Amino acid sequence: MSLARRTLRVLLPVLLAGIILLLIVGGTSTSQANLPSTIAFDPAVAAIIAQVTTPTLAYELAGLTGEQPVTVAGSPYTITTRYSYQTEAISLVTRYAYEQFAGVGLDVAYHDYVYNGNHWRNVVAEKPGVVDGNDMYLITAHIDDLPAGPRAPGADDNGSGSVAVLLAARLLAARHLAYSVRFVLFTGEEQGLRGSAAYAAECRARGDDIRGVVNLDMIAYNSDAQPIVDLWGRTGVTGSLELTRVFSDVIGIYGLNLLPERHIVANGFPIQHSDQWSFLEQGYPAILAIEDWDDHTPAYHKVTDTLSTLDLDYYADFTRAAVATVAHLGRVIPGVGSLSGTVRVSDTGQALSATVVIPVPVYGCTLTVPTDTGGVYSLSLPVDGYTLTVTSPGYYSAIITGVQVLTDVVTVQDVALAPWPRWYLPVVLRSDGASSGSRIVLAQQGAGETGRGQAGSPHTACTRSRPSRKPCRSFSKPAMLL
Questions:
Q1: E strands along 383-445, which residues?
Q2: Which among 169, 249, 269, 396 has most CB atoms closer than 10 A?
Q3: Measured between alpha carbons, how far is residue 462 from residues 267, 372, 374, 380, 403 in Å?
Q4: CB neighbour list of residue 9: distance below 8 Å, 6 or more residues apart
Q5: What is the largest CA-CA distance in the chain?
Q6: Radius of gyration over alpha carbons of the chain, in Å?
Q7: 82: phi > 0 → left, psi -120 to 50 → alpha, else beta; which?
Q8: Could you report the per-residue pLDDT of 156-183, keeping only the tens digit for each?
Q9: What is the model's pTM?
Q10: Residue 436, CB half-sphere, CA atoms under 13 Å: how many?
Q11: Which domains does the chain have, with CATH numbers?
């Protein structure tokens, strides 16, 4: 057998083993979260929705409908209209919403768009998820209203939905959620879903992984003894059907005085006539939650759409249902701690770039966390015990079990990886009939073997592994919008 052939027989297994390791390390990703298959009573969620009261809703809605002044940019301002073409008014209304979101500590931004030469904007706030910040759910409403004159209170349509979104943001801002939740208020809805269409299209173009949209439109009017809630989903969109189920189940689990009715349609009224349609058109699952249309407000799109016409008890339970639905979708976490550490080479102590893989079975996903160039990893996790697998090309992997993450505590788990042994093979290189001795240095992979992680000193540096993301009717006249 020639020297070259013998060398190839030695090299080939090593090279194949290295390729397999690289595929394993490079192919690990965060698994996707699904809608909850069942809804179980959660005391944490019950405590959240218990904070929704009729006096709070009445106070907030009085401000949004102009019955009392609000504070915008540090000065009192009375909102007499939220009509999108009223440039100054809608600008101050969206600023008011922005400041409300920012005031509870959320990341908030304007989403600007242009319609028919008009520069309008939506308001988007986000609560990042602890377990998987890429998966997200949206609770939305349109904050603009009609009629077009100088006075447009729009209490039911759609001050009711807007206040519910603002209150949901306030109640969930201080909570830890497994998945991200966005709170979005749209303008331009009454002109043909302009704001939501622009935002949903941008979300799709950006690749946002939106798992569900709960759109609230007209949720406060009820004049009879049947507190019906209409939940509209779209046929052929599994996630849309499931969202109506989750919302309906939440009503029963938390004993809310509402009667959910689920409607599944392909198109037409009302599924195409509010902002959920913009997301459905982009392939995102979405639903419309609205008052019983057989008993909808007679003040629809009129100056008489005022706070005094609403059923505040019905409105409070509808808001509780919406907040609880989003809390279950985002998965409220009872306790969160931090895990961090430094990966080093076992024999030299040199910092090592590596990948840390952490299964989170309770939430059905696996986190893959690369270290920074200094070997440091850091992330927040729900309180629990974890198993870490740490890998780096050219080193034995380490599997560390029983790593405990405690509430509001930084758990430090440093890791030392042992390098593969080196082989030195004699190779004869020939050139112009002459030969010279040389050596090729090979790193050997110990297939199926792991080294044990070793504890080290604490390291407080923090890095985040996630890729960065930018924070997306009388109905007798079908052409009109909710």
A1: 384-391, 397-405, 410-412, 415-417, 422-431, 434-443
A2: 169
A3: 48, 9, 11, 10, 18
A4: none
A5: 103
A6: 28
A7: alpha
A8: 999 999 999 999 999 999 999 999 999 9
A9: 0.81
A10: 3
A11: 43-333 (3.40.630.10), 335-419 (2.60.40.1120)
